[in-house]
C-alpha cells in the first residue's frame, strides 16, 4: 500500500512537471519574444487585478493600458480598476499590473516580469507599452479580444520574465486601395490586426491606374473623375469589363482620422503617390499632364499602362509639388513613398517635350541605361529635392535605383532577391519585400489546393514559406546587412474585391511575417508557429476576421465568388 502511495505521489509529481512543460509550450505569443524565462512561483491572477500607471506614461501608453484593463474587465467579468500614481519612486505598488517608464530601455522594447502578486511592465516609449499590452493579451485566453464576459476561463499568467525588443526597426504592411477601395472602417480593422502583431508601419498605396483615392483640394477632378472607373475586368479578360462604375476616395478629414487612429496603435502611416507611372487616375482627370494629351480613362483592367506622366511638360512638377504640399499637411510621416515602379518609356521616347528636356539636361544613354531611364532618375531626384525641403525622406520601389539615386533615399526592394542585394550593396537603407516571400496577393496553396481558394493573381506563397524568409539568407554580405531597415509584405488587390477575401489573404500570413520582422534571427520554429496559430485562429474568430485555415487542413473561403485558376 505504501508503495502504491509513493508511486501515486511520484506520478502526481510527474504529471505536475508535464503540466508545467505543457504550460511553457502554451506561450502562444506571436511574434515570439526575444527571451522568455519561466521562473518559480505561483500564477498571477489577472482578473480583477488593479492596473497602476506611472504618471510619466504618455497619453498613447495610458490609453493602451486603459484599453487592456477595459478588455480584461469585460471579458473576465471582474472589474480591474485603473490608477495613475502620483509619484514614481515612492508609490509603486507591489501587486497588480504595474506599468513604469524606464528611460534606459531601447525604443519599442519592454520587459514583463510576472510573479504570483505582480505583473511589472517597463518600457521607455509608447510602442514599448503598446507591445507589452499585446503580449499580456496573448498570455491570457483568446476571449480577451472579445467584447463580452466569458465564464469558466482561467485568467492567469504564469510566473515568468519576458525581455522583448524588435529585430528590425521597420515592420511594415502595405495595402492597395486603388485596385479595390477599402472603407475607413476596413482600413482601421486592418490596422487593428497589424497592431496585434507589433507592426509599426502602414504603407498606404493610394493611387494607381485604376483609381486616385486622395482628396486634393487644388485638383478637384482627381476625385471627381480620377477616383472612378467605368467597370472592372472580370478575371483575366482585360478587353471587357463588368460595366459597373466602381470607385471611391478618402476625404482629407478621413485620412487624418486614419493617421490618428494608427498613431494610437503605434503605427505610422506612409502614403504612396505612385509616380511617374501608374498614373491613369491623374491623366483621366488632367490629360494635359500626359505626353499625348489623351484622352485617357481610368483603367478598367490590370497590368502596366504605357501612358505615364510627362516630365517634358513643366506643369507636371508644379502638379506634384501641389499634391505633396497637401499630402504633407495630412501625413506627418518621416517618409513619403513616391512609387517609381513599372514606368514604361514608350511615350517619353516619342514625346517632343520629353526629348527636349533630355537634351536640355544633357542626358545621354550609355551601356547600362537609356536616356529615358535617366529621365526617370531626374524626376525622382527633383521630387526628392522638393520633399527634402519639407523635411521628408523618400521611399521608392527598387526601380529608383536605375540611374544614380540621391543619398538619403530609401529603397523598397520587391523584384526578387537581386534587388535586395543590389540596394543594400549600394548602401541605401532598404526595406525588403521580395515577391517570392512577401506578396500576399499570391495563392496560399499549390495548383491542386487552389481549386478551393478564391481567384488570385497567381504564385504560391503558403504561410510556411512566409515564415521561412530569412533576410540574412538573401543579403548574405555582413556589410550589406547593415543597410536592411526592415521587412514588409504587400497586399495588392487586383483580384481581391471583398473584405472577407482581403482578410483571408492576410491571415495567418501576417502572423508569420511578424516573426520575420520582430523575433531574433534563428528563433523561428515552425512547429511552435503551427501550435500557436491554433490560438490565433480563435483570436481571429473572436475579433471577426476571416482567415485561411489550410494549415489546419480546412482550406477555402466559404462564399467566395470565384474559385481556383
Ligand atoms: C510592384 O509590385 N509593382 C511594386
Ligand atoms: Zn512627354
Report on the structure:
By secondary structure, this protein is of the alpha/beta class. The chain folds into two domains: 2-164, Chitobiase/beta-hexosaminidase domain 2-like (Chitobiase, domain 2); 170-218 and 247-276 and 311-338 and 368-552, Glycosidases (TIM Barrel). The protein is 36% helix and 15% strand. It is built from 19 helices and 21 strands. The chain has helices at residues 2-25, 59-76, 126-139, 184-196, 221-224, 252-264, 280-285, 315-330, 346-349, 352-360, 371-389, 416-425, 435-438, 463-468, 471-474, 478-481, 499-506, 509-518, 526-543, and strands at residues 35-38, 44-45, 51-53, 82-84, 96-101, 110-114, 118-123, 156-157, 160-164, 170-176, 201-205, 207-208, 211-212, 228-229, 246-247, 268-275, 335-339, 393-397, 410-413, 430-432, 484-489. The strands form five sheets. An eight-stranded parallel beta barrel has the order 10-11-16-17-18-19-20-21, surrounded by four helices. β19 (410-413), α12 (416-425) and β20 form a beta-alpha-beta unit. α2 runs parallel beside α3 (126-139), α4 (184-196) runs parallel beside α6 and α8 crosses α11. The N and C termini lie far apart (69 Å). Residues 1-25 have low confidence and may be disordered. Acetamide binds at residues 341-342, 397, 414.
